[in-house]
């Protein structure tokens, strides 16, 4: 092969390599465009699904968003030292589709109860459930009864344990050892324990089960809120745990007039005060008929 043929062969090889590189770049660009198109299709499907959920009236359709909303309610209840949170079901006719899928009201009740419970008791009192999937993302409430292992308090929340009943019932109160009470109680029951000032947590020092209201009554400590489910608005009042019910009630509505705090003069009332958040699904007239003369309506 002479020098001219060698140069021609080299030029041909170079041109072929250049053509192959150009084709490869084109294929890579095509694959990238296809991938971007697929991602856009997936995004459009998600967006359409979210729009459809909003159209169907589910304002908090995403589970972690619903959990966040429940966490905000729990924090507000704790900050303002609320004794009782009542969740009434505005659509109780809708049945739950399974053990792991609950209606909006039932979902809210479960999350509120979980968050109010001290961290060291949650594993024993709340089995795994789909609705608790995102609760780990919520910040702790840091309520006075949410004590750490190294903290001592004259009262602690606990859960009764199974085991030897010869001396009484052992209770897990979140300390390095379980404490002993004289009563014979079934396991898995949440109780309030009077710990006192004696830090001896051996079986030689038996503790006493007291009313959950004792920390507030004796030491003016806020000790969490109770959560109650009502299947309808009437149940909010008829199933009240207080003998004399609620002596003063404020009903609010998205259709009501705006008033300043200085215009709202509250009369003297006993311990129980209820504030209801009302939407268009629950007319104020219905609220008025349920709560009677004790209801102050902002309409």
Automatic annotation (TrEMBL):
Composition bias (Low complexity) maps to 1-12
Task: Cite the CDD domains for this sequence.
Answer: HsC9orf114-like
Q: Which InterPro entries match?
A: Alpha/beta_knot_MTases (IPR029028), NA-bd_OB-fold (IPR012340), Put_MeTrfase-C9orf114-like (IPR003750), tRNA_m1G_MTases_N (IPR029026)
Q: Where is the composition biased (Basic residues)?
A: 13-25
Task: Give positions of region: Disordered.
Answer: 1-62
Residue span of the signal peptide, if any?
none
**UniProt record similarity statement:** Belongs to the class IV-like SAM-binding methyltransferase superfamily.
Q: Mind telling me which PANTHER family this protein's record contains? A: CLASS IV SAM-BINDING METHYLTRANSFERASE-RELATED, METHYLTRANSFERASE C9ORF114-RELATED
Protein name per Swiss-Prot or TrEMBL:
Uncharacterized protein
